[in-house]
Amino acid sequence: MEKKIKLGIIGAGRIGKLHTENVLFNINYVEVKAIADVYADKIKDWAYGLGIKNVYADYKEILNDPEIDAVMICSSTDTHSQITIEAANAGKHIFCEKPIDFDLDRIHQALDAVKKAGVKFQVGFNRRFDHNFKKVRELVKEGKIGDPHIIKITSRDPQPPPIEYVKVSGGIFLDMTIHDFDMARYLSGSEVVEVYTNAAVLVDPAIGAAGDVDTAVITLKFANGAIGVIDNSRRAAYGYDQRVEVFGSKGCVTVSNDTPSSVVLSTEDGVFSDKPKYFFLERYKDSFVDEVKEFFDSILNNKETPVTGIDGLKPVLIGLAAKKSYETGKPVKVE
Amino acid sequence: MEKKIKLGIIGAGRIGKLHTENVLFNINYVEVKAIADVYADKIKDWAYGLGIKNVYADYKEILNDPEIDAVMICSSTDTHSQITIEAANAGKHIFCEKPIDFDLDRIHQALDAVKKAGVKFQVGFNRRFDHNFKKVRELVKEGKIGDPHIIKITSRDPQPPPIEYVKVSGGIFLDMTIHDFDMARYLSGSEVVEVYTNAAVLVDPAIGAAGDVDTAVITLKFANGAIGVIDNSRRAAYGYDQRVEVFGSKGCVTVSNDTPSSVVLSTEDGVFSDKPKYFFLERYKDSFVDEVKEFFDSILNNKETPVTGIDGLKPVLIGLAAKKSYETGKPVKVE
Amino acid sequence: MEKKIKLGIIGAGRIGKLHTENVLFNINYVEVKAIADVYADKIKDWAYGLGIKNVYADYKEILNDPEIDAVMICSSTDTHSQITIEAANAGKHIFCEKPIDFDLDRIHQALDAVKKAGVKFQVGFNRRFDHNFKKVRELVKEGKIGDPHIIKITSRDPQPPPIEYVKVSGGIFLDMTIHDFDMARYLSGSEVVEVYTNAAVLVDPAIGAAGDVDTAVITLKFANGAIGVIDNSRRAAYGYDQRVEVFGSKGCVTVSNDTPSSVVLSTEDGVFSDKPKYFFLERYKDSFVDEVKEFFDSILNNKETPVTGIDGLKPVLIGLAAKKSYETGKPVKVE
Amino acid sequence: MEKKIKLGIIGAGRIGKLHTENVLFNINYVEVKAIADVYADKIKDWAYGLGIKNVYADYKEILNDPEIDAVMICSSTDTHSQITIEAANAGKHIFCEKPIDFDLDRIHQALDAVKKAGVKFQVGFNRRFDHNFKKVRELVKEGKIGDPHIIKITSRDPQPPPIEYVKVSGGIFLDMTIHDFDMARYLSGSEVVEVYTNAAVLVDPAIGAAGDVDTAVITLKFANGAIGVIDNSRRAAYGYDQRVEVFGSKGCVTVSNDTPSSVVLSTEDGVFSDKPKYFFLERYKDSFVDEVKEFFDSILNNKETPVTGIDGLKPVLIGLAAKKSYETGKPVKVE
Lengths: 335, 335, 335, 335
Prior knowledge:
Four copies of one chain form a homotetramer. In chain A, strand 13 (264-267) and strand 14 form a beta hairpin. Chain A is of the alpha/beta class. Helices cover 39% and strands 24% of the residues of chain A. Chain A is globular, with a radius of gyration of 20 Å. Chain A binds chain B through residues 146-147, 149-150, 152, 156, 196, 198-200, 202-203, 215-217, 219, 221, 225-229, 231, 233, 235-238, 241, 247, 249-252, 329-331, and chain B through 146-147, 149-150, 152, 156, 196, 198-200, 202-203, 215-217, 219, 221, 225-229, 231, 233, 235-238, 241, 247, 249-252, 329-331.
């Protein structure tokens, strides 16, 4: 390729930095031309060290740079939809971290702007690119398990986030389970039409005091007749527990957790093996690389992104229904 | 031991024969004095071959034999409660196959008779004696996983029963899931207070035509605050799938399926291992022996049976609630 | 079957008692007519309790009983060949515990007597009947791994035997590895033609003082060109370690150890699973039943026993070569 | 860090390219200043694309560049010792691919030059940096398995190399097993003092015609009394098989193969899982990064390299002994 895609990154917190380095070290046809962060001063050393010359406090400088082809929106959640609209209007291709927004109107406005501008748009549901889940999806798609009947997702964090974060997170269903709702759609190849939530505060009363729950079992009805169940906990003592299972008319496919090593130690005291990789940065390391690779490949070869605007919208709809189900104690239709 | 416990077996179908042989080959202080079956002629050769001298068509002959200390009720489900009442009145200790009855009044009458007579009474929830599930229960009881938060039970049959059986089975929740309801109580050490059922006909339309479902995901609320989920299918292409998982404040315990061997074959085509043991007779072989051993041990040492009348009643209550939840599409309180 | 096979058991130590109970509880066409043990008084209660009426101090009473069809020789190793000869001369079918003898001449005399008498003869290499190893053999025989290239056997005991036993055991190669030599022949379907032994005293100096070793790695050359390796230890801290692997032109088959349960416990401290079943009585429980079932089936249906006299002889030859290799530090041809 | 380490890479075949990219994408304090390859024209596009400005046909241009601090020698095996000597004389730190040489004198000359120059020297035994083997070594070092008694290494390639390569490879023991000899030393923490080789041509007669073998079982005696065994095959139908096991007085540690995913598919036909990662580039991907990271860290912090000149020498000595053992049919002392 002669000309490099010129990229601007908006927001250089943990995930923004991760994407920046992944692009720099793995995709040679993309140039990170500029980074914007409200705390521009704090990230300058890091950015310059990586050879990135333009560091702005205001993301609009990126949107105003006509040379920039694409942006990655990694700023705080409440800014995603607004920046998406502005970036679309500026004709930039957009990779937007999840969720687009908690407000349905604003999601629709953002998706409308994207549509009107005809730019590429991808939402950061990175787990679809995980080596294990991707393989499960492939097997399901190939019909190896026949028609899906039961989809099971286990998703447990090693530690709850700080209470301050919990308060602004949108609640467990929109903050944490949203990834699992995406996974449910991805694995089943079908839409969720109804949810029922069984949830409780079992991990930390402070989470309850902040108006949220920390433990949940959510059942799903799919358009294709399949039934799903997601179980969540904000705290698994043994680490990040991320497993899925799809059972169908011809069989069942499961994945277990990734571990740092395959070592098994047998002693008088028992047989010991590794705990799962600690948290999402370790477990989903490669998936973060692969999602951005596919985003830029969509631009380069002008094809649909692997996680579309609809894929960004639907999990929010399911999450809102899950929340309502918890509040009412009844099953709730999605939309 | 000087004197043997004298036993009468009522009903010599598949499970009655299994119990008979298990007692004969494994418990040397019990004498099988008599067997009754409505098709007495058909079982005579088998019984005499085992050295059992008395084969009756009418179970009352067993109840009327003053030498007989205990009976095992293995006849058809609709006779369980009636024979239990009569056997209790005759002063016999009782091992009764599950379920005691589908009718709550009759269960209560049976349990009242047992109580009044002061005889031992055990219900045939054999899975509690399975080497894997027993070990899970022990670990939970020892506090190894802390307080239980999420209980997950997978229970899938290799093949649906004949449609004629489905019609009189009482429905999947009272016929199949009833074992899982027992397991839920056993593993959690807590009572189920509410259920929500998500079920469908995905395996065979004939099951739907017979008024039943064949696929279900049932969520449970426990008195101790934990949440449970059971998933059922009448047909797992790969065989009998029986796994449980208990997740708690300090960790998680899981069991995988038993297999005929631990062989792993690696070839150009992939890595192959054994399917689960085919069905309940293979998987739960030893548990059937152990449950009767403990029953006779309860008699011998005059202690409580490991599966009491209440343990026989509760899963029926949960099953009825699960059924009602399916019919109404809403969560249903138990009792 | 009309007439039962009448059996006499010679030697009622641990293994003799095990065989007796296995026959009584599992094979209904065999009658244990008599038991002989030099300590007849000590076993009478046990024998009478099982309904065995004839308990002798002298095994000749069994050989002299014309009604007895078959004997199981479970007495001390130094008597095996002599009793085999006498039993064959008396026209009894013979199940003989391993080894037939440590002395090649006496083995040949015993096998000659068997041949002349035309009686059935089976040696107690029970591991051939283990569910795992049997399955490995079947896969190898079916050509699933192609031509065998490398055969690996891991065989480690949980505890060394008492030093007094070590002194009269014939040494590790004839006492412990002999089972692995049999397994090597069984799995490969080929004869061992050369051995090289690398051995040491690493577990207990007292074993060395008794003239034996406790740790060994023995390589084997097979007639079909394959190469084998056995590793032994008298003490595995985690229990009885019994695994095999056969690698060939088309793939590889392995088996792992049997465990009491499939429980996996995950906590902050790690992921724990069961140690192997403790020792041979637990691990090979079913194989002891199956080997005697096949012995009596050979009598009943007049077919070759599954472990012949040659199968009893060959591992002794290999064991003697392994011993010589250890003493000379050089590879040694078998025979 | 203010100043970057300036690196020259000598030889840009498969491994040279891999190291180059690993350095560029993973170590930000190293600058690849120049690359030399006898086919300089063929690698120019690749090198320029990576931003490397100096591409030479003659490696001496690198050695003559006073700015260059370190070199990685990735040229053909027969040039390793000569270039090592020249690079040491030029005062460059050296990372040298294995083996240093097949000739002991030349190895000694190279190591002498390194010693005299006082430069860092590391040999490319990358497997020591594999996540699994490293963890095994740590557990052994921490005493978790007590004193090592038995070390087992399984090392099988998915496909034999081309016959032309076999002819100049130095033979299986110096080309393939050399990695396992290094692993044996690494895992045991002890020196190999004697080897016995059992080898054959079972995979491809053409390998035999080329004067080499393709299947081997090699036993090792260690200075600390432990016994080892390595099994090799040039062709495992199911892929790259790389497992180790260390058994000791207090327990045993094993590792299984890495797989692309943890997917398990259960169907009517059986239970299927992934084959091992295909070959060394996939399996040892991260170890290649980690070994160079540690090399540059040794330079940066002026400490001993993790794989020294002695570590480069010893496996050659063992390999030569293994070869001699095969030729003579007898155990051979190392050195």
